[in-house]
Structures are given as C-alpha cells and as structure tokens.
Automatic annotation (TrEMBL):
One Pfam entry name: KH_PNO1_2nd
Keyword RNA-binding listed: yes
Coiled coil: none
Domain K Homology: 120-193
GO MF terms held by the record: RNA binding
Keywords in alphabetical order: Nucleus, RNA-binding
Species lineage: Eukaryota, Viridiplantae, Streptophyta, Embryophyta, Tracheophyta
Protein name: K Homology domain-containing protein
Amino acid sequence: MAEESTEMDIQSATEPESLPAKPIFKPLKAHEMSDGKVQFRKVSVPPNRYTPLEKAWLDIYTPVYHQMKVDIRMKSRKVELKTRADTPDVSNLQKSADFVHAFMLGFDVTDAISLLRMDELYVESFEIKDVKTLKGEHLSRAIGRLSGKGGKTKFAIENSTKTRIVIADTRIHILGAFSNIKIARDSLCSLIMGSPAGKVYSKLRAVSATLAERF
C-alpha cells in the first residue's frame, strides 16, 4: 500500500497543473498612457504659409479633430495640438503634428494627409549645399535641372518612386516610404552633381521595373 501511494504522489507531481486563463487587457487611452497628463505639440507657421493655411484650414482641421481625436488651434503664429480624453492612441498626436508640419513645408493637404493613414511614411529634407557647394548661376542651373521644363523632371521622379517632392529655394523635401525616398534622393543628387536628365530617366525606368516586380 505504501508503494502504491508513493507512485500516485509521483504521478500527480509530474502531471502539469491547468494554466490560468490569459488576461485580456483593453487598449490604453492616450490620457492613461501619459498618467492623465495632456500631451502637447506645436508646429511653427512660416510667413509664406499663412495664406495657404487659412485657405486649407478646414481640410486640416477636419481629419485631425474628427478622425485622430486631437484638438487643434492656431495661436501666436503656431499650430497647437493636444490630446483629449477620447484620443484612442497617443501616437495620433505625433501623426497629426507630422501632417501639419508636412503642409508647412509645402506639401498639398491631399499628399500630407497620407501621414495620418500610413505608418511607414515620413518626410526627409536636405539642402543642395549638402550635396555640392554651388553659388550664383551654377546654383540656379542646378535648381532648374531638379524641376525640369514645366516641372517635367520632378514629376518623373515622383511618379517613378511613388514619392512627393517639394523644392523650396535651396531646400528639398521628400515625402514617402524609406526605400522610395532613398531612390528619389539619389536621383536628385545625381541632377545636382550635373548628370543629364536623360541618364537619370534611364536609371528611373530600371528602378520602376524593379519596384513593379517587387509589388
């Protein structure tokens, strides 16, 4: 009897105990993530974007306030954004700030709004002098090569790389996915260095074919 009881004790010890049910956690609200504190962001408004901002204010306000659940207002030459009690995710605040910042850089609202809808998009900026030091007429010709006649070159790069490009004097802003931005930046840098547009077009055609096969 003692041996049987010992065998039963060993068997019961080796049998796995039933695991408790996995806990289910509800998503945290933005105000819960920040310990109930309101999160703020401020985006400066350049003087040349006052009028475009005024005209496009409703197009900017509507998705930020109603879809992202983020408060937005214009005050002291800055666009201020803050979280609300019903903001579903604290990242919505940063997305909204990126959206407004992209508009201030010169992107159209219809292009900048993609930053609210897609996580893998961002904006990269650089200056012509970061690639090559140019002055006077040489700088003007480089800017002309980037745009092309009637913006033909810029549109070709945008369509081939699925990006949007803004050329603001000597600064260049590119909106898109990481890999696409790299391709667009390389094409723009080649133009700045003096490569003819035809050579850049041929490279873009090869890149477009590769991107089409990938997707």
